[in-house]
Amino acid sequence: xxxMSRGLLSLATPIALLGVWGALGDPASPVAPPPxxxxxxxxxxxxxxxxxxAVLATLKTVLLATLVAGIAGTVMGATLGARxxxxxxxxPTLEFLRSIPPPTIVPVAMLLIGAGTGLDISVVALATVWPxxxxxxxxxxxxxxxxxxxxxxxxxxxxxxxxxxxxxxxxPGVIAGLRVAAPLxxxxxxxxxxxxxxxxxxxxxxxxQRDFDAPGVFALLLTVGLIxxxxxxxxxxLERSAAKRLxxxxx
Amino acid sequence: MTVFQDYGNALLPWRTVRGNVALGIEEQVSGAALDDRxxxxxxxxxxxxxxxxxxxxxxxxxxxxxxxxxALALQPKVLLMDEPFGALDAMTKAKLQDQLRHIQASTGxxxxxxxxxxxxxxxxxxxxxxxxxxxxxxxxxxxSALPATRDQISTKEMPEYLHARHELLERLHxxxx
Amino acid sequence: MTPRLRQTRQWLLPAALxxxxxxxxxxxxxxSILPSPVEIGQTLLxxxxxxxxxxxxxxxxxxxxxxxxxxxxxGIPLGMALGSAERLRVALSLFIELLRPLPxxxxxxxAILVFGFSWQTEITVTVFASxxxxxxxxxxxxxRMHPRxxxxxxxLHLRRWxxxxxxxxxxxxxxxxxxxxxxxxxxxxxxVVAEMVGNPAGLGWGLVSAQEAMRASETFAYLFAIGIxxxxxxxxxDFAVKHLFPGxxxxx
Lengths: 251, 177, 252
Description:
Oligomer: heterotrimer
Number of strands of chain C: 0
Largest interface: A-C, 56 and 53 residues
Strand order of the largest sheet of chain B: 1-2-3
Shape of chain B: elongated
Radius of gyration of chain C: 23 Å
Radius of gyration of chain B: 17 Å
């Protein structure tokens, strides 16, 4: 099968499914409304302004929280990974903390941080800092000691050492961690919006469900899917361009 | 019924020696009859002692014998062996060659044996068929003048052996030209 | 540094953190938002003894196991079919890539629409979220199988069902097991999340209701219980696998 027929075949299944659903589905169905109804409902939500606001709110939370988690995680990971003594001591504790599923942290974090605008971003950041920190810690530990010695031998300034040795070595770890953190951030953000009734798609979803608005629920699911694709795609692009610019020989 | 060169990939590592031999016949035969067939096959290749071992514990030669035993358990009329001893060391190869002739004599199975080793072909074969070209066609055939009972030392010194070997190599070079 | 010294330091760290936490909590003035470890321990004990925590834990665990079994029943055959039939794999590839990334959280409202706040919601969402690793791993197990195995099946004239049961599935088993373990951890986590939003029962619900009632130490206690359940369940699974399938070490 050549590439084109593969593409067509794989495209055929979802299209066929949607087509059959659209043709045979009952628009009034409380649980399985046909795809056309989703779009109509989405249009309604767009007209009312709800959809855009929710998308912006969720995106804002996700992106800002990922940024905060990225910075905090990098700093913590690099600090803990810098000395073998420290990273060894910390290892079992981190293992234990890592086994706590991030979504379950949300209620505890809500209690500690309290209501307020900072809640979303703080909670999501708290939940997503772990992948970044662990990846950066690992990357820091695996900087070959010879490279570090090279930096000293050449009498490079601390700034030069950081820029030319440490950053290129750690950067793939940072990006790998971000790539895991971003989808996690979406999940946790939705959860926070649902539990704390903060503005965003999560809250819209709950509202739609309470109003028995099945087309709305589907339209929002579609939106979540699109956001996921967008965010994941962005971070995958980031990973690819970083990989291109950093020499592989370093790894 | 084929016996493959890469016995490592052809055996089931999660089954014991007995289990591997049983694979081809367990759907048709069961109970005491199954056990008898397995025992007979293992006896023919001399693996009775290792019956409860896993293939990973066996040497290369033993693993290949296991594959042969599995094939024999089906009591095939024709056995196709695709360079089965190619991956084995010289001494194991010699032992297995003798064992194979013995098996053929006792079961009467027709064995089609593929090899690149001229000595092996002459030593083992009752008929040696030379293939040439791609796709292969039969270039020539040699009937063996060697006796039915052969051994690694005296047979290889017989004039008939050396003549056959000479003939085969010449034809090989001729076909290559 | 000797192993003993390193181990001592490793244990010293959490101990020191706990002590610091205790001091910080007791030093608070007025109504404390941060409960001390001692308080949390007490609450943990209370809920254990009263039977509420064990009941909740049992519910979550049962839901996770049930979901996992369903994942096994759906995911393994589907994955193996995908690995064997090229056309099927291509036909479903886009479909799977579109459905797989959907977060379980987002699916909960839909499930509530269909099933209401019930265990069906919990299990449906959990299965949907956790079946993917099994499908992909089973598919990979078949794709990675050495082609020689298929030749052996044909040369021995093995019948289809016999071949599937005795040769092909064991050959793919290693990969399938990896997927099954991953799926199991997911089942636990997603069950808890589903309970937090979609089914008022189990540890997730206990966690959220404690938080809504502002019972801080109870919230922490439930969080701790969830973590412990996860660790124990996964350890138990590893242990079971090691003992049920010792022959896995025999595989290549």
